[in-house]
């Protein structure tokens, strides 16, 4: 293949971006795609139609030619109709079914590579089989990890060097979290198929792209590289553009605009994780007794949607009145976090969410739910940009703890310190952003040249 570098960081390299079927993975891939286009790359972003439908509006007009959306189809199945070809709102019991369907779609992905003949494939670590398909077509492939280095180095250490304590004590799992991890790993081992690639396979000094920055994770990047023999190239935090909202959001932003600066907390737990009835009740009462203004995005799995009044404590909406807004629909998270009246973010600590919060200078109130999230939460606490709502030994949260942490972050001295620190970190991340992506572009061009598959 002919790849000509016209100047530093500028190339006509044609790249297929192939994320896992989750918005939390597609979003960082899209973020990197835009940055690569700025440096002369042509991008094919490949996902299922249901996912592409949701992200087409996230592509500004200036990228509409250089980022082409490519439909990737899963095998037909009555158990998994097309609207379930995404993790967004997917009932939890169908997660493994979706993973299996993705692997069964190798022939479809192979056809895409045959037709497009890209110079490079950048694939998600959860789509590791894609590397084998790329190799069949003599196309070089690089993995992109959509989580941070602290969490991945922690798990790598746990799996590859059992019995050796993780050398950074700020990053740890509590007992209840270790129990849950053990259950997930046992289930994963049971479902693992003979042709599955080990996520923690050590490399032969190949490169791996990672959605992070040395500004916040230098020691974890270095430790992971040492353990795995992978050369980690940070692509910067996965942060979406703060784009304009729909017309029907006007009333909502008018309401937010009338609140005082830093007086309102944003509450959201991402598109894939759903609160238990008990957690929802404790959060509701915690918000109520805190007397803090809030925006709360409440989500349910597809097919299990409920009336808000039935899902929340009786009389809750009437009692909170104009102090809060409870949204059942998708919310423009970047634009909300970028609003000056937002003073904190109660988050499940998915990597995209915490990185957006840091980028917009908003302190995090950590309430992790699943696997990687407790480690992300502890990293944010170590950075001095978060306070955690701590669960008890049975994994329960309590309204009094929620209210206390909320009040301290929105109105207390703790909140002032967190805001100062998060703004400093945000400023430093922005300063290095362009330099990091220039390095990524150069590394990808060189990798493609050295692979003997691009000439």
Model description:
With 455 residues, the chain is an alpha/beta fold. It is 45% helix and 14% strand. It has 17 helices and 15 strands. The protein has a seven-stranded parallel beta sheet. It has a six-stranded parallel beta sheet with strand order 12-11-10-13-14-15, with helices on both faces. The longest helix is centred in the last third of the chain and has 38 residues. 41% of the residues are buried.
The number of distinct β-strands equals 15
Residue stretches low in confidence (pLDDT < 50, at least 5 long) are 1-9
Q: Can you give the mean pLDDT?
A: 89
Percent of residues in beta strands? Answer: 5-15%
Distance between the termini: 6 Å
Main sheet specs: 7 strands, parallel
Taken from the alpha-carbon principal axes, the silhouette is globular
Q: Over the alpha carbons, how many angstroms does the gyration radius reach?
A: 22 Å
Oligomer: single chain
- Side-by-side strand order of the widest sheet: 5-4-3-6-7-8-9
Query: Helix count?
Result: 17
Which class best fits the helix and strand makeup? alpha/beta
Question: Notable features of this structure?
Answer:
455 residues; alpha/beta; seven-stranded parallel β-sheet; six-stranded parallel β-sheet; 17 helices; 45% helix; globular; disordered N terminus
Brief write-up:
By secondary structure, the protein is an alpha/beta fold. 45% of the residues lie in helices and 14% in strands.
């Amino acid at each position: 293949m002919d790849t000509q570098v016209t100047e530093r960081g500028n190339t006509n390299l044609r790249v297929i971006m192939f994320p896992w079927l989750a918005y939390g993975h597609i979003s960082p891939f899209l973020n990197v795609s835009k940055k690569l286009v700025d440096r002369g790359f042509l991008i094919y972003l490949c996902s299922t139609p249901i996912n592409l439908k949701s992200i087409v509006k996230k592509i500004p007009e200036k990228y509409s030619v250089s980022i082409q959306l490519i439909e990737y189809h899963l095998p037909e199945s009555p158990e998994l109709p097309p609207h379930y070809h995404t993790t967004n709102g997917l009932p939890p019991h169908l997660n493994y079914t979706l993973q299996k369907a993705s692997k069964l779609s190798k022939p479809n992905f192979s056809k895409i590579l045959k037709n497009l003949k890209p110079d490079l494939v950048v694939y998600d670590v959860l789509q590791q089989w894609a590397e084998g398909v790329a190799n069949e077509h003599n196309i070089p492939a690089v993995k992109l990890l959509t989580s941070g280095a602290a969490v991945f180095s922690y798990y790598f250490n746990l799996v590859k060097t059992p019995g050796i304590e993780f050398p950074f004590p700020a990053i740890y799992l509590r007992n209840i979290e270790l129990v849950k991890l053990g259950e997930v790993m046992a289930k994963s081992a049971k479902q693992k198929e003979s042709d599955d690639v080990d996520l923690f396979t050590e490399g032969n000094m190949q490169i791996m792209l990672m959605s992070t920055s040395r500004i916040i994770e230098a020691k974890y990047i270095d430790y992971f590289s040492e353990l795995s023999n992978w050369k980690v190239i940070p692509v910067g935090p996965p942060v979406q553009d703060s784009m304009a909202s729909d017309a029907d959001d006007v009333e909502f932003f008018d309401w937010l605009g009338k609140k005082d600066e830093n007086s309102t907390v944003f509450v959201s737990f991402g598109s894939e994780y759903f609160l238990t009835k008990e957690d929802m009740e404790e959060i509701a009462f915690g918000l109520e007794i805190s007397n803090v203004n809030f925006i709360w995005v409440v989500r349910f799995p597809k097919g299990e949607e409920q009336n808000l009044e039935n899902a929340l404590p009786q009389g809750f909406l009437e009692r909170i009145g104009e102090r809060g807004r409870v949204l059942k629909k998708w919310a423009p998270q970047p634009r909300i976090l970028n609003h000056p009246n937002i003073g904190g973010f109660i988050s499940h600590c998915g990597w995209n969410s915490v990185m957006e919060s840091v980028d917009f200078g908003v302190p995090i109130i950590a309430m992790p739910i699943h696997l990687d999230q407790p480690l992300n939460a502890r990293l944010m606490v170590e950075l001095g940009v978060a306070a955690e709502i701590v669960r008890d030994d049975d994994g329960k949260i309590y309204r009094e703890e929620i209210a206390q942490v909320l009040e301290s972050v929105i109105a207390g001295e703790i909140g002032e310190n967190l805001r100062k620190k998060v703004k400093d970190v945000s400023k430093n991340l922005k300063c290095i952003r362009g330099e990091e992506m220039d390095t990524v572009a150069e590394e990808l061009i060189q990798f493609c040249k050295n692979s003997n598959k691009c000439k």
